[in-house]
């Protein structure tokens, strides 16, 4: 889940996730959870945007509950889901004395934390201690060090992000399970399908042709061990499937961060897959009709350079970000400095002008649709997605089996967890650098490779959509906006200069 940051810090003029407001609106649920109104909750009321035009929170809650029932989430599980969501909203109400300038974190209203713990069937005392005190092992002893208010505040934000991600993962897994054929009740993951022999033959025959597009295969171009195992499994089974892939739209806002970088990289990879697939289809059609044409010049649609700039190893933006996260005293500024030095001769990576930049730590990437300015501010923190391992251990020891199971695997931590030693997990005293760290971007990239491997061994058909206007209005076409999309989607030749 990329946009976990929205849970604790929705954008200016934006709502948090709809489910939060739906829960607050339903007093039959929120009263039992002792939730204030959405306006009074920090995570939902911070931006002042409480309503969404055309969206009825009450009606949508009924539809949401009916949909969960339809995919097999029973009433008990739904109750725990709302409890977990309500509990994480209460985390935003905790005050550790940051505004008062206290030297040590001190919880102003322990009653709110007690309600949080009651909802999740946790012991309150160790939870409060884990939020306010860091334990460091020195020799055979543990040394208690009170946290600064700002650090304690970030710990609870990290916990809230992780809790929401756990809910998201639970629902995705449940939806996938409900869609399986013949194995819906087994709890096993659906096996990867096998493409038809014709598709496999075409995959082999087009591998060489893809080299004309920048020297890299456009389908499954980065095949690590995990992807190779996936492809082998696909060839070993004899299933067929029909899948629908709703492709991300390119995103560019006033401030673009890690979420937009990952989404736009995904679009670059899928655009490359689209280009290669269309090229292969045209070649097959020509061959079937006996038409011999000279080698095509695909330089106008070749985006392999920007794909390598963002996703290449070593030196790509995402790989460099992951490396900087494990460098001692690595920072957003040091990451950006190294990145610009490494690619100082690249025409695709530039420092934006002062007018274009969103802040001092900005860089511009020239995508196939045009340049996008990204901010490196908080990029390392977002990629690490830190969460206290001690807080996760406490959740794993909830008296509720349902809560325990949501965090049994670490709650979706990216590997950047912080252990204070309060629960003394195995190896808590070790300070060795974990070279196996995988941040948010690295995990996203791995999942993208698996998706592209699946697309590459399928027989794809494309429906390209054009956004007609920015107002989301019917029967309104903005000519410049539509023409720009047609050009960047390679659906019409570029105009002569």
User: What fraction strand?
Assistant: 5-15%
Q: Provide the residue-averaged pLDDT.
A: 81
User: What is the name of the CATH topology of the largest domain?
Assistant: Four Helix Bundle (Hemerythrin (Met), subunit A)
Could you state the order of secondary-structure elements as H and E? Answer: HHHHHHHHEEHHHHHHHEEEHHHHH
Q: From the coordinates shown, what is the CATH architecture of the largest domain?
A: Up-down Bundle
Task: Report the total helices.
Answer: 20
Helicity level: 40-55%
Biggest sheet record:
3 strands, antiparallel
Q: Helices and strands: which structural class?
A: mainly alpha
Biggest sheet strand order reads 3-4-5
Summarize the model shown.
This protein has 497 residues and is mainly alpha-helical. It folds into two domains: 222 residues, Four Helix Bundle (Hemerythrin (Met), subunit A); 205 residues, Methane Monooxygenase Hydroxylase, Chain G, domain 1, CATH 1.20.58.530. It is 46% helix and 5% strand.
Give an overview of the whole structure.
- Residues 183-223 and 412-435 have low confidence and may be disordered.
- The protein is built from 20 helices and 5 strands.
- The protein has helices at residues 5-8, 18-25, 27-30, 42-45, 57-70, 75-91, 110-120, 124-132, 149-179, 197-207, 225-236, 258-288, 304-311, 317-324, 332-342, 379-384, 389-396, 401-406, 440-456, 479-488; strands at 133-138, 141-146, 349-350, 362-367, 370-375.
- The chain has 2 domains: 5-184 and 386-427, Myosin VI head, motor domain, U50 subdomain (Four Helix Bundle (Hemerythrin (Met), subunit A), Up-down Bundle); 197-380 and 443-463, Methane Monooxygenase Hydroxylase, Chain G, domain 1.
- The protein starts with a helix and ends in a 9-residue tail after the last helix.
- A 3-stranded antiparallel β-sheet has the order 3-4-5, with helices on one face.
- Helix 12 (258-288) packs antiparallel against helix 13 (304-311).
- It is mainly alpha-helical.
- Strand 4 and strand 5 form a beta hairpin.
């Amino acid at each position: 889940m990329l946009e976990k940051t929205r849970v604790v810090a929705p954008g200016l003029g934006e709502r948090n996730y709809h489910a939060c407001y739906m829960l607050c609106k339903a007093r039959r649920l929120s009263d039992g959870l002792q939730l204030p109104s959405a306006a009074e909750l920090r995570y939902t009321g911070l931006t002042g945007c409480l309503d969404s035009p055309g969206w009825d929170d009450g009606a949508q809650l009924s539809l949401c509950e009916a949909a969960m029932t339809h995919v097999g989430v029973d009433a008990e599980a739904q109750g725990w889901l709302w409890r977990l969501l309500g509990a994480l909203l209460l985390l935003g109400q905790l005050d550790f004395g940051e505004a008062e300038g206290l030297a040590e974190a001190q919880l102003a209203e322990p009653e709110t934390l007690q309600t949080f713990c009651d909802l999740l069937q946790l012991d309150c005392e160790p939870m409060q201690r884990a939020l306010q005190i860091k334990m460091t092992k020195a020799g055979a002893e543990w040394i208690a060090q009170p946290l600064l208010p700002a650090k304690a505040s970030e710990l609870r934000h990290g916990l809230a992000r992780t809790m929401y991600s756990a809910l998201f993962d639970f629902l995705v897994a449940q939806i996938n399970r409900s869609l399986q054929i013949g194995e819906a009740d087994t709890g096993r993951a659906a096996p990867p399908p096998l493409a038809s022999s014709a598709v496999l033959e075409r995959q082999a025959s087009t591998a060489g042709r893809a080299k004309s597009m920048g020297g890299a295969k456009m389908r499954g171009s980065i095949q690590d061990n995990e992807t190779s195992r996936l492809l082998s499994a696909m060839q070993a089974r004899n299933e067929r499937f029909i899948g629908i892939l709703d492709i991300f739209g390119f995103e560019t806002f006033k401030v673009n961060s890690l979420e937009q970088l990952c989404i736009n990289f995904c679009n670059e990879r899928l655009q490359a897959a689209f280009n290669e697939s269309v090229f292969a289809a045209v070649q097959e059609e020509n061959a079937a009709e006996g038409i011999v044409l000279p080698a095509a010049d695909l330089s106008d649609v070749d985006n392999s350079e920007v794909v390598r700039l963002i996703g290449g190893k070593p030196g790509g933006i995402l790989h460099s970000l992951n490396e900087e996260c494990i460098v001692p005293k690595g920072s957003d500024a040091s990451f950006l400095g190294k990145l610009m030095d490494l690619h100082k001769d690249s025409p695709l990576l530039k420092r934006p002008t002062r007018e274009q930049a969103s802040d001092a730590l900005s860089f511009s990437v020239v995508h196939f649709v045009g340049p996008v300015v990204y901010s490196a501010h908080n990029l390392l923190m977002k990629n690490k997605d830190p969460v206290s391992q001690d807080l996760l251990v406490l959740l794993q020891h909830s008296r509720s089996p349902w809560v325990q199971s949501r965090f049994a695997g670490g709650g979706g931590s990216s590997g950047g967890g912080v252990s204070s030693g309060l629960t003394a997990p195995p190896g808590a005293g070790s300070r060795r650098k974990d070279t196996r760290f995988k941040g948010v971007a690295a995990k996203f990239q791995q999942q993208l490779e698996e998706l592209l491997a699946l697309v590459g061994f399928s027989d794809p058909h494309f429906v390209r959509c054009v956004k007609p206007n920015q107002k989301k209005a019917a029967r309104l076409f903005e000519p410049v906006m539509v023409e720009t999309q047609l050009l960047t989607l390679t659906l019409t030749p570029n105009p002569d200069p």
